[in-house]
Structure formats: structure tokens, C-alpha cells
Specification:
189 residues, five-stranded parallel sheet, binds adenosine-5'-diphosphate
Amino acid sequence: MLNVVLFGPPGAGKGTQSENLVKKFDLVHLSTGDIFRANIKGETELGNLAKSYMDKGALVPDEVTIKMLESEVKKHESPKGFIFDGFPRTKAQAAALDALLAENNTEVSAMLALEVPEEELKIRLAKRAETSGRVDDANPKVIQNRIDVYQRETAPVAAYYQDQDKYRGINGIGTIEDIANRLYEALEA
Ligand code: ADP
């Protein structure tokens, strides 16, 4: 299996590039943010809980997120692989993902980390707010909080994969196509 962790700060382009990777390698796309938003829309219990964190730009608690991700992975019979978008965001989530994949006799193939400077992220998120309808894109304070949470809790996850020699840093500046090609090259190497 080809199991890709697509990593990077809010606004780095994970969602956009996931679409390209899904098409190119025929992977199952699991975006924890998208799954939470679908639950919010469907007014499920999980959605109501997630919303209280997401609207502030905070992380949904690990226990909840990990359980949700596990049940999503189990929905797929024999996929060619997964692209994990927005997960893992903490070291505890990374350890849980390793355990889950090991149970299925597979593992994370690589972490592809989109690298984009903070100033550019703020510009992209403000622009996305015009069309996304996302509460967490609309407020500069919430955007700043998401970036701070990323630096504090999520950035250390990169070291977890560096220790396993699976980390690949990708320049996230350029056209969508340029960046897609960099990702393909990193996976085909
Ligand atoms: P972005 O990366 O642009 O912030 P996402 O759609 O990936 O957007 O995530 C939106 C929000 O969903 C996060 O700010 C967080 O509240 C919640 N979320 C998504 N994935 C996770 C996760 N793995 N762990 C905890 N919370 C998450």
C-alpha cells in the first residue's frame, strides 16, 4: 500500500494537492477537517462537539479524532493506499496511526510536508474566506490561533517522521501544477 501523510500548516494547500495525489495514485482521501465539517453539516453528535473546537481554531481532542479516523480507515476493504490530510496533528495521533496501520500489516510510506511561510498562509486563508464559508477562515484572530496551535502541537509531528526517515519537505510556493509535480517526484523517488 501507498500511505501518504500530507502535512503542512493551515492554508498550505493540503486539500488542493490531495485531489491531485488521489487521481495520480488512486488513493483513498481521508481529510479529518472535511469529515468533521460533514458531521457539522449533518448535525451529528460528533459534529456538534467538533464545532466547539474548530470555530476557535483549537484542535478537536485526540481521543475523539483518533476514534473517528480509525472508523473511517476500517470502511475501506482493500484500498491501494490512503492519503491522510490533516492527520496526524499531534504526536499521540501519529503513534495511533502507526498502531492502526500495523494492525493491517502496513505502514506510513512517507510524510510529504508542504512548506509555506506564515505571511503567505495568512494571505491565502484570508482569500479562501471569501468563498469557503468557513467560520475559522473568516476571523484573523482564529487564523492566528490555528497557526499558533500548528507551531506548538503539530509542527513537532514532523520530527516523529524524521526519526523514521520518512519526512520529505516540499516547497509549497508555485503553481498548483509545479507543486503537484514536486509531490509526485518525492513519492516516486
Ligand atoms: P486547515 O488545515 O486549513 O486548518 P482542516 O480542514 O485540516 O483545515 O482543519 C480544520 C479544523 O478541524 C482544525 O483547525 C481543527 O479544529 C480540526 N481538525 C482537523 N483535523 C484535526 C486533527 N487531526 N486533530 C484535531 N483537530 C483536527
